[in-house]
Fold this sequence. Notes:
mainly alpha, two-stranded antiparallel sheet, about 60 residues, 3 helices, elongated, Arc Repressor Mutant, subunit A
Amino acid sequence: MYVCICRQITDNQIRDLCRNGASSLTDVRAQSGVASECGKCGKLAQTIVKEFAKSTQFVNAG
């Protein structure tokens, strides 16, 4: 699903960035440009980053 229409960034691309070490919206923005034009996608992008962080904590706990 497209998260950022301005930059054509999808939720899967954001998750891929997180898998490759991005741990905050600032990291994702620096690498992809998400939330850097109109900014309307910032909240959703932030939610995806946080959900990814929670899911990896759960996986790493086992």
